Amino acid sequence: MIKPILTEKGLNEAKKGKYTFYVDRGLNKYQIKERINELFGVHVASVKTINFKSLIKKDYRGKIKKIAAKKKAVVSLKGKEKIDLFDVKK
Asked: What family does this belong to (predicted)?
């Protein structure tokens, strides 16, 4: 599973050539690089990963909710390649 992060900060970073995705926690950097290359037809230069541990929080009614652990990948591309998914139309 590779899911793009389309937030305001993520779209601003995409203008600089850094694209962010949520990925499966079991994938390593080499596997992430291969999957991005296959899905979007680009050449990945580097991959940085961030692990988020699971959390337990209370909602506004006091019920306890468990937030699942996640892994985020920040991908830089070679040259002036772009991923069309992150383009912002004005």
From this structure: Belongs to the universal ribosomal protein uL23 family.
